[in-house]
Input
Amino acid sequence: MRTMVKGIDGRVTLHEVEQIHLSNEIKKIEENQQLKDGYNWNKCEHIDSFENHEQQVFRFNRESILIVKVVDEFYAMNEKCPHMNLSMKGGGIEIKDGTINCAWHNTTFCYKTGEVKNWLALSKTEKFMAKIFLKSNKQAEGVLDIEPVDIETYPTQITDNHVWVGIKQNS
Output
């Protein structure tokens, strides 16, 4: 492989690399990714790591995924709320209702299916105050009028005491 690197005073130096050793990187990929049933399965973390941190974010390619532990089950969803693309991490989990709350704008989603349960649950006073505050920000125009959008969910599985998340191929 040949590569050109800018040198001193705009000169270009040609560097030649005779060998590239990728065996460790290939082994790491093989240990942490699997292709099965139309999903790219990605190894996340040992289940014990969720004892003290029930919500963890993992990034795979362009996907940012939040995995939450609820009792002894693991659920995965897009880490960003579809309302304004803010993080869902730290949102309250309501086991009885099966929901996670986006704390930024009080929107709740089913953590199993991603279905919107309550969209922008703000009081009239809170909405009024938000509209006044947002009025001076042209980028925020209309954010309170966005239609409800479900949050994307992903399947999870436990293999060798590690949580794995499946991302559909070609997504």
About this structure: The mean pLDDT is 83. DSSP finds two helices and 14 strands in the chain. The helical segments are 23-32, 124-135.
